[in-house]
């Protein structure tokens, strides 16, 4: 079967992006590599003056994390030495020499690293259309900001999850964008709610949907493949872009089970099993080129590398590269030389082994957290759904059972939330109140004017807290959850 | 004398910047370091999983570039080894451990590096007000883009140099900003022209002036101290921000002399002489806190580091940090650990030695370029002013002397420029046509309605080419300029 080409979606570009001109200087740079021309056109410093002659890094050998070992970066016997020189001739093949990575250029990313990431992307997502590509960014936060500038103009509307990453929402608000919350349940966005909203829409439709569909922040939910398919159909029908912000994609885990004997038997054993166990992405069903996928090394290697990438159709990515040329220019060259060096040493297979190791680590952390939640949080007022991806778990609290709910708190669920938050800190554990992530925005017509069960449900009072099992050692995690349980018991007089 | 405090200039902020809210999550993060609280609030990966245990870099020893030696990064005898560990306890003092630099956080930049750069800034500029500060960026391109977003809203006007960096102008145009060109001569912006324009201004005044005041791109001009003082007074009077974009500040050189025996005797001998020889910045006369200075390591260490910084009053910088939190987040941690390591090894004095070495290198390059321009470019149609800073030289060509000027070209100077550009490439040398850098924008009232010699002069036809002596080895530079001379001679039938 031949793959289709992407649809022309240039009508969805922002005023800013449409009006951005290419620099005339670009036309001159085609002579930069012409041996017959002395190129006096660019203000580039000579690499002779770069003060880093070579870099050496100690990195884990794939032997340290293959075959179900998890991740151990400290065992000194299982280390490799990675060395990168300024001088190209001294480097191993496929390395990015420092004379190039420390120079201007390659806004779209250094070719060796892009090729590795593109091959990896195709291995995982099997992108179903022809003219897709990837470009580098300095991480998903910047990717999202640049994607917004590329598609949305002050006054436009976008679709967001009912609860979403507050920083991502604030990016949109400051730009004067209306963020319309879409109802969610334990499994993420409810497609029928989205459909009702859009079928009844009056005026210019929302330009894009922003979704953290796997290991969602803050709810910890993950969108099923079936829901992704339904939502993609809606995107096609109502002509909007899907921006899938997927930093947690490779922090997918086994389903939680209380039967501890089952836990070890469910781990994935090889690359094939691993790839099969991943929920298919929006990108993997994108036949029209209307998905912009934001991906990053922040959660799987390290956030401070500040390296991410955007996957999408070439024509749309070109507009983001033009923005990058006048903003970030390119990710750090030191980062690119080092990360590329690491990945070339590991190879595609070694990198998958690393990701399998992370899956094991996070499954274990999640299990420890959920075991503690079951044990220490009072089931009289608390319920929860164990997450299958990401860094976060949430606990729902029934606010109506708070002794002050009908009296002092005047049936205001937010007052219960606030009391539990403060009591948590007092007892020695901080979890983030769910209301801090509430999306605000106005659909047209307003959701309350539409008769639909899931739209109404979204506006019932709902108290939940977001915790993480990613950031603290396991013993501290258990102690923390126990303290949070104490706080709830004190508040609810249990 | 006690220093003054900055003026409140918050009325100059953009709509976007004024409406940007702080994240509620920030209020929680104050408990991150509280030993009594288990912090389950943030989605940070454990540094145990960062795959870089330590980094080693070979860097030049200050002995390699002290006392007028210039810069030689290849002499292997004069190298230092710089090592940075993930584990804080293994590092030398003032290093940034990888467990921190590779983690989230420190949007304003890592403290050790910021302190070094702030001390350096005060040493050079002696900032004359109290509440100034610096924040990190990923380079001046990004600093300028973020500064624009912070101060200017679609439809606003800004002041720019008559010829300016085309990429910086395009950043503004795409944002819907009107860029008003200010007349220049060989010494940069003409203050009286700026004064005339603003005194007659009708409607909302321009929010800021964007100037590359030292080693200007593309003209190579440098603004004298006297002009900077006059322009600062105008900024105060007409209430605008001065954005000084200063990547070339430390590429200041000795004045050009044709007397080769004088050249060696004019070099600076010590730190005091070096600092005295630098033209005072706008920042150094900024008593009100209305200067935003954009500074960077791109031209003095390496562009691919993607590390710059912004100097200005604290209250205004805070708005840019909020933008950075939802865009770049922070510069690369690898870059920050390495650059900080380098600078801590060198110390403030070593870094000044490095800059003195660069001054020597660039003075020599400039001399070679201008010697060749004098020798090979036909003085019948060409004139030039040798630059005293930066990477660029320009040659002015009298278009009226082109044999086709009155006939085939119909007195269109741009046709002469185009013919010379194409002939240059044909002969084997590319220099960039000046018209590619022409600022376009509309003052109110239009400049041609104001009677002022310098305003009129700016609109006379003017043909010039920008070349660089930075990017090519000296022998290739001379060959290139000779070829460009050939091209002019062919075109002008000399």
Describe the structure.
The structure is a homodimer of 494-residue chains. The first copy, chain A, has 494 residues and is an alpha/beta fold. Chain A has 2 domains: 10-34 and 47-357, 3-Layer(aba) Sandwich (Aspartate Aminotransferase, domain 2), CATH 3.40.640.10; 377-492, Aspartate Aminotransferase, domain 1, CATH 3.90.1150. Chain A is 36% helix and 15% strand. The first copy, chain A, contains 15 helices and 17 strands. The first copy, chain A, has helices spanning 15-19, 25-28, 98-101, 111-125, 140-151, 166-174, 191-199, 225-238, 260-265, 271-277, 314-325, 333-376, 413-427, 453-457, 474-492, and strands at 38-39, 54-60, 79-85, 132-137, 157-161, 178-182, 184-185, 188-189, 208-211, 241-245, 291-296, 308-313, 382-383, 392-397, 429-430, 432-433, 463-468. In chain A, the strands form 4 sheets. In chain A, strands 4-12-11-10-9-5-6 form a 7-stranded mixed beta sheet, with helices on both faces. In chain A, strands 13-14-17-16 form a 4-stranded antiparallel beta sheet. A two-stranded antiparallel sheet of chain A has the order 2-3. In chain A, β9, α8 and β10 form a beta-alpha-beta unit. In chain A, α13 packs across α15. Chain A is globular, with a radius of gyration of 24 Å. The relative contact order of chain A is 0.15. The mean pLDDT of chain A is 94. Chains A and B meet through α1, β1, β2, α3 and α5 of A and α1, β1, β2, α3 and α5 of B.
